[in-house]
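#structure-requests
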Amino acid sequence: MRGGVQPRTALLRRLRGDVLAEAGISANDGLGSILKSAQSLPPDERIAIERAVREGLDNGPRLAMVDDCNGITNLHVPSDTIVDASMPAMIRTSGHMWGPDGKEADALAVIPDSSYASIYQVVIDDCRANGPYDPTTMGTVPNVGLMAQAAERMREILATVEFRDPRAVLLANADARILATGEECRAELVEHLTRGVDWIAAVNRMTAEGINTFVEAGPGKVLTGLIKRINPAADAFALDEQSAPHRFAMPDFLTVS
C-alpha cells in the first residue's frame, strides 16, 4: 500500500495506557495534540511517546498528508481530514493522495463508518467500470434542490442588506473572479451555495496578480498546505497553529510594533 490512510488505532495502539491517561492525553485528539501534551511529561515518558510516534510513522504504511511541507499527516488534527471533502478529491485523482514525499501516490482509505464506506465503495466501483463522472451532464451535489431552495432564501434575505463596494480586493473562489462592487459580492454569496470551489484557479489568479504571501485564518491549516502544493514558492501561514501559544500564531509581518 502506497500513500495509505492508516487507521488511527493501528498507529496509536502503543500509545494507549497509563502514561497517556495520567497526563490527560487522548489519542482521539490526534498526533499533534499528543506530541504537544507530551512536552509537559517527565523526559523519559516524553521521549517514549515521541519514539512510539516516530516508529509508527517510519515503519507503518505511509500516511496521506494534510501538509507534506511541514510533516502534518491526516492523523495530526482530527478536523483536518473530513470524509466528505477528502474522498471525492481522492476519487477524482484516480485514488491518489499526497504522500510525505510531496508526490501523489495510490491510497487506501480506511473510513470508520460502515455507511460512508459502502457508499464510496459503490462510487469507486462504478468509476472503474464506467469511467469518471461528468458534472456538466449529471450535476453536482451542491446543485440538488435543497441547496437551490437555500440559495433562493439567501437571495431574499440579502436583498434587505446594504452592500457597499469592497475597500480590499475580493476574489471569488468558485471561478477566481475579482469582486469589485457590492452587488457582485451580494450575487456571489447567493451563487456560492450552488457552485463548487476552484481553489487551484483562485491561487493561480492571486499569484498572477503578484500575491506571494498568504495567511489562513483557520480553523486548521488545510488551505496553507494546498497553497504550498499549488505554488511551492509562496509564503503561506496559518493563524491556527497547534504548536503556538493558545493555538494562535501571528506572522512577524502582521505584528504591529
